[in-house]
Amino acid sequence: MARRSQGRTGGRSGRAATRRTVESIKPFIERKIPFYELLDDDGLALIERNADRVLEEIGLDFKDFPSALALFKEAGADVDGERVRFPRGMCREIIRASAPAEYVQHARNPDRSTIIGGKRLVLAPAYGSPFVRDLDSGRRYATLRDFENFVKLAYMSPGLHHSGGTVCEPVDVPVNKRHFDMVYSHIKYSDKPFMGSVTSAERAQDSVDMCKLVFGESFLDQNTVMTSLINVNSPLTFDATMLGAATVYAQHNQATLISPFILAGAMSPVTVAGTVTQVLAEALAGMAYIQLVRPGAPVIFGTFAAAVSMQSGAPTFGTPEPSKIMYLAAALARRLGVPFRSGGGLCGSKIPDAQAAYESANTLQTAALCGVNFMLHAAGWLEGGLSVGYEKFVMDVDQANMLDILLQGIDLSENAQAIDALEEVGPGSHFLGAAHTQANFETAFYRSTIADNNSFEQWEQDGAKTAEVRANEQWKQMLESYVPPALDQGLDEALQAFMHERKSSFEDRDY
Amino acid sequence: MTDENYDDEEIILSELNDEELVQQMHDDLYDGMKEEIEEGTQILLDRDWTAERVLNEALVAGMKIVGIDFRDGILFVPEVLLAANAMKGGMAILEPLLAESGVEPKGKMVIGTVKGDIHDIGKNLVAMMMEGAGFEVIDIGINNSVEDYLAALEEHKPDILGMSALLTTTMPYMKVVIDEMVKRSIRDDYIVLVGGAPLNEEFGQAVGADAYCRDAAQAAQMAPLLLHNRQAARG
Ligand code: B1M
């Protein structure tokens, strides 16, 4: 019998202590496997030519936002009313001249500052749901309490590198004041990087002002501390709300995710090639706008594509066509030289059932293989984004942890080659007691936090719990053991004072 | 798909008797054939059918079948759009005659998304289904303020006001609109229907709408009932 090389470990209590894995902070996943490509250079070049044609001949509308029209005109675009047409290659040139290929998004804890772009993958929780769901109380409108809970859960999940933005909509807080509480929660209950408000230019400015308190005004002007979500109103339209918020962030050197958010078939052509052409044209125009506002302000090429059910108009997820769109868009973003956003644990299911699991897994795997750099909606997403689930959240985090290991690629060190082990065991016998196994078993295989692999009898004896029930226990335990990251008391007071002053300077409004 | 048994070349509408023609119009609506519906509508009028009878027996009855098969997932959205468009072709011929004879059209609806909200796919589907159900729909588009809604009510004098919102940040605005209608004592002049994915039954009640509609098919089903009840209540 091979002996453990380290000798005495302190028996039961000593072993228990080492098993309580102390997670080292990983601010992103570093990819060591190739990108999976579905289309060769000729195919991608064809899409690029078609997108250029769309930009030149059809153009995009920039609605109710004259300053964008002026900027484009000055840069050489043809502006006709609100329609902007771009000479061939114009957007690409503007972007290539100044948009960074990758950028640091600083967190208030420097160890958690992340890098977005290149061969890295940053995972963030779901975004935008009006409802939350949990096993005990079902589906209900989200509250600020839920918002805080999801920030805490994301903070406690090493597989999530980013705190996200509107992790759910705190419907119990007046519409025109929610953004203060959301930004504050990200700062207070987490120390991971996060996203700012985009529902108006003013709210974007409030987000920036709160970050000035945290990071200092001059730091903020030269560094990026927020990455915020700007959706295109596809087809081929940018609206004033999004442009207003995007402009504020760009002016302050804060990153924007320019995302055509497409229900293919309703908001874009029904074909993969047609949709990707439109996505590229829209993203190019949006990112070029940001570079005109402030050259060098970080931009991410976003793509969110779902297919529309032709029977009801409802969005559908995890099907092959959106996966193909994601592969193509990722390749196009690499050719352009900017970071790429897509993916997530997307599904249409109302509950964390088999439909949810299949659809989410399809999307996550595609996102990992195609080379997503920033993955919003990585945890909690249900019901096409209408609901975020507590159980689904911890189930997705388990999947997120696995992506890290997949992307780490193949270890070819001497230890990993394991010739010793093969020599030691030889034909027949087994590897469980081999010295190589003893030395490696603890970290050799990913241990799911959700899955149950016990015998039928054992599982039954333990209460025959479904994955959802196990997940329910898990998130509750997590919230119970939550310990907030340290926050300087003076800063906390300054943030609260700022919120109080701003909130009392105008009436509550529900729009 | 071609099927020689269904070669439309062979059918000459004017040679069909009334019953056959109405049956054929139901099929043509189903197939979204606008010109044929216009032709059939004209033939029935020439045979001295009243506009009201053409509307109800040929068009509305035909669209009912379309509605059922849409609800049951047999017909797809693009097909229903074609059918609704064909229906509109027939309606365009009937409308002036209905107005002349003082027959109320089936009903009129003004619909738009509320201020700050640009999500309009759902609203467009509702408009499509309502048109299919024989309603005249005035689509006032996206991002409507109280003033926009009131101006549209004033101008078009509809029976129904439909509001759509997809954002929790915009849906409370429905209450702003309804409250203003109450203030101006015009709330009860209209049936107010609301919809959009982040709403629910409770919310519809809380803002003071007559009904919350979970989807387009339900809106088209509910509207005639509410309209009927209201007309009955008024005697
Ligand atoms: C009689 O009156 C009636 C009766 C019935 C009515 C009715 C009226 N209206 C609807 N119905 C009913 O009948 C319809 C047909 O059966 C149904 O309509 P629906 O509209 O529900 O269904 C449609 C057929 C299909 N569904 C949809 O079209 C909506 C799908 C989702 C994915 C969605 C889309 C597509 C879009 N979006 Co938006 N979007 C989401 C949506 C999530 C979701 N799953 O619903 C939601 C609603 N969006 C959200 C967000 C955050 C946003 N969106 C935004 C933008 C967009 C796009 C422009 C990209 C696009 C809309 C394009 C368009 N032309 O409509 C931004 C806001 C823009 C603005 N100012 O309005 C932005 C703020 C994102 C950003 N950061 O840029 C979230 C809500 C957040 C909140 N606060 O509540 C969201 C839940 C997604 C998410 N998780 O983030 C019924 O509800």
Summed up:
The complex is a heterodimer of chains A (511) and B (235). Chain A has 19 helices and 19 strands. With 511 residues, chain A is of the alpha/beta class.
Which short descriptors sum up this protein?
heterodimer; A: alpha/beta; six-stranded mixed beta sheet; four-stranded mixed beta sheet; 46% helix; B: 235 residues; alpha/beta; five-stranded parallel beta sheet; 9 helices; binds CO-5-methoxybenzimidazolylcobamide
Uncertain residue segments of chain B? none
Mean pLDDT of chain B: 92
Do you know the CATH architecture of the domain at 12-34 and 97-407 in chain A? Alpha-Beta Barrel
Query: How are the strands of the biggest sheet of chain B laid out side by side?
Result: 2-1-3-4-5
Q: Oligomeric status of the shown chains?
A: heterodimer
SSE topology string of chain B: HHHHEHEHEHEHEH
Taking the sheet with the most strands of chain B, its summary is:
5 strands, parallel
CATH class of the domain at 12-34 and 97-407 in chain A: Alpha Beta
Largest Cβ-defined interface: A-B, 23 and 25 residues
* DSSP helix fraction of chain B: 55-70%
Query: Largest sheet of chain A at a glance?
Result: 6 strands, mixed
What is the overall number of helices of chain A? 19
Structural commentary:
The complex is a heterodimer of chains A (511) and B (235). Chain A has 511 residues and is α/β, with parallel strands linked by helices. Helix content of chain A is 46%, strand content 14%. Chain A has a domain at 12-34 and 97-407: TIM Barrel (Alpha-Beta Barrel), CATH 3.20.20. In chain A, strands 10, 12, 13, 14, 15 and 16 form a six-stranded mixed beta sheet that branches. A four-stranded mixed beta sheet of chain A has the order 3-4-2-11. A four-stranded mixed beta sheet of chain A has the order 9-8-19-18. In chain A, a hairpin with an 8-residue loop joins strand 5 (102-105) and strand 6. In chain A, helix 6 (178-189) packs parallel to helix 7 and helix 7 packs parallel to helix 9. Chain A starts with 10 loop residues before the first helix and ends in a 7-residue tail after the last helix. The model of chain A has no long low-confidence stretch (mean pLDDT 95). Helix content of chain B is 56%, strand content 10%. Chain B has helices at residues 18-30, 34-46, 51-71, 77-100, 121-132, 146-156, 173-183, 201-207, 216-234, and strands spanning 108-113, 136-139, 160-164, 191-195, 211-213. The termini of chain B are far apart. The interface between A and B is medium-sized, with 23 and 25 residues. The complex binds CO-5-methoxybenzimidazolylcobamide. CO-5-methoxybenzimidazolylcobamide (B1M) sits between chains B (116-123, 125-126, 162, 164, 166-169, 193-198, 213, 215-216, 219) and A (127-130, 169, 198-199, 229-231, 233, 239, 241-242, 261, 263, 267, 313-315, 384-386).
